[in-house]
Design goal:
By secondary structure, this protein is mostly helical. Helix content is 82%, strand content 0%.
Length: 87
């Protein structure tokens, strides 16, 4: 819908679609409890963090995006360390 409104140069439609997307994302943000986080595999944690990064990107929240990006880098680093130990 958003692309269609851009293609048709429909500023009101674009604004409406954009605001609805923001509302949907902000109203349905994913979350996990600390207990759930501890039970997740590295791949599941990475997937969750990528989802949080996408939420932050859609909401134009640079601080949150940077936080989750750093978290993903730490997970990747931990994963490489764990793979090195198992070899």
């Amino acid at each position: 819908m958003k692309k269609l409104t851009i293609d048709n140069n429909d500023e009101v439609g674009y604004s409406f679609a954009h605001q609805n997307i923001l509302n949907i994302v902000s109203d349905n943000m994913v979350s996990v409890s600390p207990e759930q986080w501890n039970l997740m595999s590295i791949d599941e944690k990475s997937s969750f963090v990528r989802t949080k990064m996408n939420e932050a990107k859609v909401l134009n929240d640079k601080d949150s995006y940077n936080y989750w990006s750093l978290n993903l880098a730490n997970l990747s680093s931990d994963n490489l360390k764990n793979e090195g130990k198992s070899m």
